[in-house]
């Protein structure tokens, strides 16, 4: 259908590992102008009503920039929680809780993907056992079917459909997919392929960030 | 973007000393004859050494799966091991402590309930400490432990399925330095990697600090350090140096010590 831009057209991203002193792990992820701060606590004490006998209870709290968290945030929290649960080895810490608190610092498009990236970096900073890494990639389909990766807020508003994927680092499997708008099955497959290609750049960046953190010690 | 540096499955020896991320697979040198289903007997069969899979690694089909991000380390087996023994582990920086059997930790007594004390060790659950687990304690002669006291002890039970239990005596019944820590001094928290660095043999930081002022120090593997020097000011100085030396290089440390010893 439409042609996609050659290679990955992701905005510039940067990340800071461990900016916060109090949580067990923290990360600040910046994608273009979208910025999210993640704080991780775990494995910590859990209320008896929420404890699971065989694995860790993962909780995600997404705090918007202004106002109280609403239904939109609850929906995003569940998506992020399911992705993290698929990746964290919860069976190693039964009857504990792993809490991820995400604070939106600025939102300029591709917010869910930025939250996923910040959560993954935070999980690594906290030293929680994971079977793979994951990253978030957003695709926007405009009226002609052209795919734009990592859209800005304006591109998201004008797009016919906005799809967000969580891609795992092991064989680029798709962990989570959420769509807003309409698209055909072929377009969905093309978006998945484009997102998988772009995720390579993000995983490369993760590796560089962790190398930089360990080179200081 | 060139993804050439993306590591798929690489042999474990090549990655020692490098940063590994969760999801990386490390291939182990496999013996071509070694087959899981067969048992080779006879004088000609090579005996593979036992490989220990340390923290941050899990064994998967092809080799070892990395579960925590950090530097990969390897230790050769001592003595009559072969080339395929030894231990691999991942050195990662973490703040949260997970109880491990045999670790010596500093805990804070939170509840005194009948026969046991509940001790907060910084993990997901509080550890239980029986009142008989002190040197010279009997049913008539109870130890003098109050809520809020600091305890230095070791874990006898610590796994993911059970509540951790700690004791203040070693296997022969002697205290060996464990027990209630005195009421003065300062307790503060550092990251687990720093504790391991400080407890390594011939750590220069402690030797240099010892030349500055005399002090008493207790390290808990759960990231807690207790310090007591002659005056409160000296105690605070020692505590600040220990907290800061995680982020300082060796030269910055010598500069800081030089500035302090002038005073």
UniProtKB/TrEMBL annotation, chain A:
<dbReference type="GO" id="GO:0003723">
    <property type="term" value="F:RNA binding"/>
</dbReference>
<dbReference type="InterPro" id="IPR015847">
    <property type="entry name" value="ExoRNase_PH_dom2"/>
</dbReference>
<protein>
    <recommendedName>
        <fullName>Exosome complex component RRP46</fullName>
    </recommendedName>
</protein>
<feature type="domain" description="Exoribonuclease phosphorolytic">
    <location>
        <begin position="133"/>
        <end position="197"/>
    </location>
</feature>
<dbReference type="GO" id="GO:0006364">
    <property type="term" value="P:rRNA processing"/>
</dbReference>
<feature type="domain" description="Exoribonuclease phosphorolytic">
    <location>
        <begin position="10"/>
        <end position="129"/>
    </location>
</feature>
<dbReference type="InterPro" id="IPR001247">
    <property type="entry name" value="ExoRNase_PH_dom1"/>
</dbReference>
<dbReference type="InterPro" id="IPR020568">
    <property type="entry name" value="Ribosomal_Su5_D2-typ_SF"/>
</dbReference>
<dbReference type="Pfam" id="PF01138">
    <property type="entry name" value="RNase_PH"/>
</dbReference>
<comment type="similarity">
    <text>Belongs to the RNase PH family.</text>
</comment>
<dbReference type="GO" id="GO:0071051">
    <property type="term" value="P:poly(A)-dependent snoRNA 3'-end processing"/>
</dbReference>
<dbReference type="GO" id="GO:0003677">
    <property type="term" value="F:DNA binding"/>
</dbReference>
<keyword id="KW-0963">Cytoplasm</keyword>
<dbReference type="GO" id="GO:0000176">
    <property type="term" value="C:nuclear exosome (RNase complex)"/>
</dbReference>
<dbReference type="Pfam" id="PF03725">
    <property type="entry name" value="RNase_PH_C"/>
</dbReference>
<comment type="subunit">
    <text>Homodimer. Component of the RNA exosome core complex (Exo-9), composed of EXOSC1, EXOSC2, EXOSC3, EXOSC4, EXOSC5, EXOSC6, EXOSC7, EXOSC8 and EXOSC9; within the complex interacts with EXOSC3, EXOSC8, and EXOSC9. The catalytically inactive RNA exosome core complex (Exo-9) associates with the catalytic subunit EXOSC10/RRP6. Exo-9 may associate with DIS3 to form the nucleolar exosome complex, or DIS3L to form the cytoplasmic exosome complex.</text>
</comment>
<keyword id="KW-0597">Phosphoprotein</keyword>
<keyword id="KW-0238">DNA-binding</keyword>
<dbReference type="InterPro" id="IPR050080">
    <property type="entry name" value="RNase_PH"/>
</dbReference>
<dbReference type="GO" id="GO:0034475">
    <property type="term" value="P:U4 snRNA 3'-end processing"/>
</dbReference>
<dbReference type="GO" id="GO:0000177">
    <property type="term" value="C:cytoplasmic exosome (RNase complex)"/>
</dbReference>
<dbReference type="GO" id="GO:0005730">
    <property type="term" value="C:nucleolus"/>
</dbReference>
Automatic annotation (TrEMBL), chain B:
<dbReference type="GO" id="GO:0034475">
    <property type="term" value="P:U4 snRNA 3'-end processing"/>
</dbReference>
<dbReference type="InterPro" id="IPR004088">
    <property type="entry name" value="KH_dom_type_1"/>
</dbReference>
<dbReference type="Pfam" id="PF21261">
    <property type="entry name" value="RRP40_N_mamm"/>
</dbReference>
<comment type="similarity">
    <text>Belongs to the RRP40 family.</text>
</comment>
<protein>
    <recommendedName>
        <fullName>Exosome complex component RRP40</fullName>
    </recommendedName>
</protein>
<dbReference type="GO" id="GO:0003723">
    <property type="term" value="F:RNA binding"/>
</dbReference>
<dbReference type="GO" id="GO:0010468">
    <property type="term" value="P:regulation of gene expression"/>
</dbReference>
<keyword id="KW-0271">Exosome</keyword>
<dbReference type="InterPro" id="IPR048541">
    <property type="entry name" value="RRP40_N"/>
</dbReference>
<dbReference type="GO" id="GO:0000467">
    <property type="term" value="P:exonucleolytic trimming to generate mature 3'-end of 5.8S rRNA from tricistronic rRNA transcript (SSU-rRNA, 5.8S rRNA, LSU-rRNA)"/>
</dbReference>
<keyword id="KW-0698">rRNA processing</keyword>
<dbReference type="Pfam" id="PF21262">
    <property type="entry name" value="RRP40_S1"/>
</dbReference>
<dbReference type="InterPro" id="IPR026699">
    <property type="entry name" value="Exosome_RNA_bind1/RRP40/RRP4"/>
</dbReference>
<dbReference type="GO" id="GO:0071035">
    <property type="term" value="P:nuclear polyadenylation-dependent rRNA catabolic process"/>
</dbReference>
<keyword id="KW-0539">Nucleus</keyword>
<keyword id="KW-0832">Ubl conjugation</keyword>
<dbReference type="InterPro" id="IPR012340">
    <property type="entry name" value="NA-bd_OB-fold"/>
</dbReference>
<keyword id="KW-0694">RNA-binding</keyword>
<dbReference type="GO" id="GO:0071051">
    <property type="term" value="P:poly(A)-dependent snoRNA 3'-end processing"/>
</dbReference>
<dbReference type="GO" id="GO:0071038">
    <property type="term" value="P:TRAMP-dependent tRNA surveillance pathway"/>
</dbReference>
<keyword id="KW-0963">Cytoplasm</keyword>
<comment type="subunit">
    <text>Component of the RNA exosome core complex (Exo-9), composed of EXOSC1, EXOSC2, EXOSC3, EXOSC4, EXOSC5, EXOSC6, EXOSC7, EXOSC8 and EXOSC9; within the complex interacts with EXOSC5 and EXOSC9. The catalytically inactive RNA exosome core complex (Exo-9) associates with the catalytic subunit EXOSC10/RRP6. Exo-9 may associate with DIS3 to form the nucleolar exosome complex, or DIS3L to form the cytoplasmic exosome complex. Exo-9 is formed by a hexameric base ring consisting of the heterodimers EXOSC4-EXOSC9, EXOSC5-EXOSC8 and EXOSC6-EXOSC7, and a cap ring consisting of EXOSC1, EXOSC2 and EXOSC3.</text>
</comment>
């Amino acid at each position: 259908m439409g042609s996609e831009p050659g290679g990955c057209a992701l905005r510039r991203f940067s990340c800071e590992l461990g900016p916060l002193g109090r949580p067990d792990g923290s990360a600040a992820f910046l994608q273009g102008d979208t910025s999210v701060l993640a704080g991780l606590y775990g494995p910590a004490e859990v209320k008896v009503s929420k404890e699971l006998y065989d694995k860790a209870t993962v909780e995600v709290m997404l705090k918007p920039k202004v106002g109280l968290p609403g239904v939109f945030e609850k929906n995003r929290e569940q998506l992020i929680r399911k992705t993290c649960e698929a990746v964290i080895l919860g069976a190693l810490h039964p009857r504990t809780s792993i809490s991820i608190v995400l604070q939106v610092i600025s939102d300029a498009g591709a917010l869910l993907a930025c939250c996923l990236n910040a959560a993954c970096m935070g999980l690594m900073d906290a030293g929680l056992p994971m079977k793979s890494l994951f990253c978030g990639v957003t695709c926007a389909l405009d009226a002609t079917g052209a795919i734009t990766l990592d859209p800005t807020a304006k591109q998201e508003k004008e797009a016919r459909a906005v799809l967000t994927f969580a891609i795992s680092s092991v064989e680029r499997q798709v962990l989570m997919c959420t769509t807003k708008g309409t698209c055909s099955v072929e377009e969905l497959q093309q978006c998945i392929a484009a997102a998988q290609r772009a995720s390579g750049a993000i995983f490369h960046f993760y590796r560089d960030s962790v190398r930089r953190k360990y080179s200081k010690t | 973007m060139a993804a050439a540096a993306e590591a798929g499955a690489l042999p474990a020896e090549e990655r020692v000393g490098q940063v590994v991320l969760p999801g990386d697979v490390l291939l182990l040198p496999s013996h071509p004859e070694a087959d899981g289903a067969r048992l080779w007997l006879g004088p000609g069969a090579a005996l593979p050494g036992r490989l220990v899979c340390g923290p941050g690694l899990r064994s998967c089909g092809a080799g070892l799966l990395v579960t925590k991000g950090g530097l990969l380390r390897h230790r050769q087996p001592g003595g009559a091991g072969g080339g395929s023994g030894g231990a691999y582990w991942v050195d990662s920086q973490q703040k949260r402590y997970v109880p491990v059997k045999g670790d010596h930790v500093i805990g804070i007594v939170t509840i005194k309930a009948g026969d046991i004390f509940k001790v907060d060790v910084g993990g997901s659950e509080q550890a239980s400490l029986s009142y008989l687990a002190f040197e010279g304690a009997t049913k008539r002669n109870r130890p003098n432990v109050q809520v809020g006291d600091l305890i230095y002890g070791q874990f006898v039970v610590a796994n993911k399925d059970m509540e951790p239990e700690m004791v203040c005596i070693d296997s022969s019944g002697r205290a060996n330095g464990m027990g209630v820590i005195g009421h003065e001094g300062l307790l503060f928290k550092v990251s687990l990697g720093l504790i391991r660095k400080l407890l390594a043999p011939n750590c220069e930081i402690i030797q240099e600090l010892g030349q500055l002022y005399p002090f008493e120090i207790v390290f808990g593997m759960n990231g807690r350090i207790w310090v007591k020097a002659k005056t409160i000011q000296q105690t605070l100085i020692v505590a600040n140096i220990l907290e800061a030396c995680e982020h300082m290089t060796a030269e910055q440390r010598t500069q800081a010590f030089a500035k302090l010893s002038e005073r």
